[in-house]
Amino acid sequence: MNGNYNGGKCPECGSTKRISGLSHYECDLCGRQLERLPLQHDFTPEQTVPRELRKSTDRNSLGTTIDGTEGARRLRDVHAMSSARKPLFLDLSIHQISKECGTNSTSADAAQLLIEADRDVKLGMIRRRMRGTQGMGEDESREYRARAFAAASLHIRNSEGRSNTAPQAAMSWGLRYSDLAFAIKILNRHRRSKSGCVQEHPIGRRARELRQELERIRNFMSEQLDMATVNEIMDRCEDMLRASGEPLRRGDEWLTGPLCNTPSSRAAFEIAIRSMAKQGLPVESAMTLYRRLPIGGLSQFMERTCPSLFE
Question: Considering the entire predicted model, what is its pTM?
């Protein structure tokens, strides 16, 4: 009941107007609580036993319920599909990068490449089927494709001189080399199409990538061999690469040779294995190096050609 308060004035502000609150009358002007509201004897609750609360995790139990008829079943299925939450394909790829490399500048650079490429070409909408997804379910196939693009972005950043664990990631994720090469091709196509992007000269890029790969091989090789032996092997690698027509230093020419169409990482690793064989090392040292640095596309070479080099 609202209106004038005939019983007296508000002790706080002196107003005679009051309104009904939740449990007491209140002053309409200052809101001070006055006397308690009278009981309503004609009120009876509809249900004295409290109902069991619905689980908030069950989206089909929220709001109105859907009965078990055929039309209702189809409506329920459509409702479940439309209300289900799936992570974005881009988020899956970035999550794989953070799991492999952690949260650092390396993973941030690789993630930025994926974000920029996804703005132009929706990576999750590429319908070409990858060979490694044969026999997989929808979710497993989606995760495999996300890992392929994550490994591709790490590979590209690695080729730019930002060393990371791209080969180890591709090996641990079980990616096929053809699928990884396809993902790299998609990302490289985006990079080349960017306006104002300065293209590195092919000879300079080849020399830089070979030097980077040789340095990385040197670091992994030093884990099992003394530095004097490592230096001898790496000096021989440089001589063998130059003899094959590969550029290593400023002014070198890139000639047509047996490795001219081979990716830099594979060319450097193959030459390193051949140099280790000429050094007289056991084949186990080469296999250990490959397990520590699993370069993609060299499985056949390591299984068939490598053992014969050390005989």
Answer: 0.58
